[in-house]
Design a protein that fits this description.
With 245 residues, this protein is an alpha/beta fold. Helix content is 29%, strand content 20%. It has 6 helices and 8 strands; from the N terminus they run ααββββββααβαβα. The strands form 2 sheets. It has a 6-stranded mixed β-sheet. The N and C termini lie far apart (84 Å). The mean pLDDT is 87.
Length: 245
């Protein structure tokens, strides 16, 4: 009996193997993953057309030593908030990489202190070339997380090659790259004048909130930016930046 059972079992196993072999189909070819399925258009442009900074460009001048950040000595305390004091074009730079197809300006503009008096605030406006020819789709007031209370640690300096290890800058790269790819302009207020020495106020909503709105108003005064008076406005804040937003 045992030899017979063994023979039957062997036959069943052999038949099962033949059936399994007959049902097997050729493995499907692995799909080709193209860059557009992994990277946003802005990232693709940076990989293709960006460049590395030269040694002279790696370390920008500290805001406290940069005349651009010096406020006017005769600033009227009643200057309307949102007034643009000055602006200059700058090159965006992160970890020695300078992305292509984006225009940017540093701004010094007027906001208000807790008593309603005028105070200078710095910031950064960035506009991608993916924006429509007649102007960006919207103007986003992006408010970074705040991971440092030292001077010289805010967006207008970070995004031009300074303070490159600040986590707030790294956490903003993903959302901002998506906004660039969709043709949105991004305005970042520094809350304060980044060139003033000493720790800035943090999480004081009556200071940081108005500085975001005033930065948007000032950005619209830069003629080269071509921001329409009725451009849609958006606000986006992360962590401590959510307090201001």
């Amino acid at each position: 009996v045992r030899p017979l059972l063994a023979a039957v079992l062997a036959a069943v196993l052999a038949l099962g193997g033949l059936l399994a072999t007959g049902a097997r189909t050729p493995a499907a070819a692995a799909p080709t993953i193209t860059p557009d399925r992994v990277f946003t258009p802005f990232i693709q442009d940076t990989i293709r057309d960006g460049r590395l900074a030269s040694p002279d460009e790696l370390l920008p001048t500290l805001p406290r030593d940069d005349p651009f950040y010096r406020p006017p000595e005769d600033l009227d305390p009643h200057t309307p908030h949102g007034t643009l004091l000055r602006a200059r074009p700058v090159q965006i730079q992160y970890l020695a990489v300078q992305p292509a197809h984006i225009r940017a300006w540093q701004l010094l503009f007027v906001s208000t202190d807790l008593d309603g008096r005028a105070r200078p605030v710095s910031g950064l406006l960035m506009i991608p070339d993916t924006a429509p020819a007649d102007g960006p789709r919207s103007l986003v007031g992006y408010v970074e997380a705040n991971d440092s209370l030292a001077d010289g640690c805010n967006p207008s300096f970070q995004w031009t090659g300074g303070d490159q290890i600040d986590p707030a800058l790294a956490s903003a790269m993903g959302p901002v790259a998506q906004m660039f790819s969709d043709g949105h302009a991004v305005m970042m207020s520094d809350y304060v004048n980044d060139g003033e020495p000493g720790p800035p106020p943090f999480s004081v909503s009556s200071l940081s909130g108005p500085s975001v709105l005033d930065g948007l108003t000032a950005a619209m005064q830069i003629e080269e930016a071509r921001l329409a008076p009725d451009v849609p406005i958006g606000l986006f804040g992360i962590a401590g930046g959510g307090v201001a937003a």
